[in-house]
Each structure stands twice: as structure tokens, then as C-alpha cells.
Amino acid sequence: MAGRIEARLQELGITLPEPAAPVANYIPFNVTGNLVVVSGQIPLRDGRIAHTGKLGAGVSLEEGRAAARLCFINLVAQLRAACGGDLDRVRRVVRLGGFIAAPAEFTQHAVVMNGASDLAVELFGEAGRHARTTIGVPSLPGDAAVEVEGMFEIA
Predict the structure, then answer these.
(1) Which H or E element spans position 94?
(2) In Å, what is the CA distance from 20 to each residue of 4, 8, 43, 48, 58?
(3) Does the pLDDT at position 2 exceed 90?
(4) Between 20 and 30 A from 149 (CA), which of 3, 29, 66, 128?
(5) Single pTM value for the model
(6) Pairwise CA distance, residues 116 & 96, whole Å
(7) Fold for domain 4-154?
(8) What is the DSSP-derived secondary structure letter of residue 13?
(9) pLDDT tens track for 47-74
């Protein structure tokens, strides 16, 4: 029987992908005590980066929000693996960190990162409200437009 969060994913029309394998010398998540720290996830879909380029330089705000949302979906895939397949173990989204590839004059980072934050609340309800940092960077791996990392409390 699917759990509460799996049922919510289904209601939202979201199918979690297989968690992406690390591309360098790191692990995809680390569990310590009741915290799970998930390494930064880029907007991968079917093994390919779905959103590339720079916000404000060819990538629209709408595409950036979609990229951040997809990053969060990939975070949740890693989180499910960290929880042994049971997302109902998640008690709280503690923190999200967003990295937005953009030129120096771009100032709409928070709007882009809302793609991830809004989905966190849609999926986990009040437990999805989190602390957040969002910064602009000159580039990301594979020319990804966005990368999102996260910290979660689990039972």
C-alpha cells in the first residue's frame, strides 16, 4: 500500500525517477541521526539535463521555475532512497539551497527558486516549509540552469 506522500505524488502527477548516480567523488545523500542531507541535484529528466543555460540570458523565469521544480523532484528521489523507500518517514523539509546560473545583473533568483519551494509545500504540507538560501552563480555542472540541495528531518 502506498504511503501518504506517495499518494500525494500521484495526485500531483509526479513519478519519481531513479536516483541519479554521483558524477564525481561524493555521495548522493548522507544520513546522520535524524537528518538527511541530499547533495545538489540538477534538472535531470531521463538521464539528460532538461534545462540548460543562464537565467536572464536566454532562459525565462518560467523555465527556471520548472528547472527548480525538477531539481526538487530529483531531491525527493534521493530522499526516498535515503528513507529506505518510505517517504512517510520525512518529518520536515529543514532547508533548501538553490544555485541559479545567471549573469551578474540578474536579480530574480528567489522567483526561480520558488519552483522548488512551492513543490516542497505542495508535497509535504506545513512540514514542507523550510529555511532557504538562493544564490546566483556564473555556471553549473553540464550548463544546468539550476541546482538544488536539501536537508530533511526523518523519523
Answers:
(1) strand 90-101
(2) 24, 22, 11, 10, 27
(3) no
(4) 3
(5) 0.97
(6) 8
(7) 60s Ribosomal Protein L30; Chain: A; (3.30.1330)
(8) T
(9) 999 999 999 999 999 999 999 999 999 9
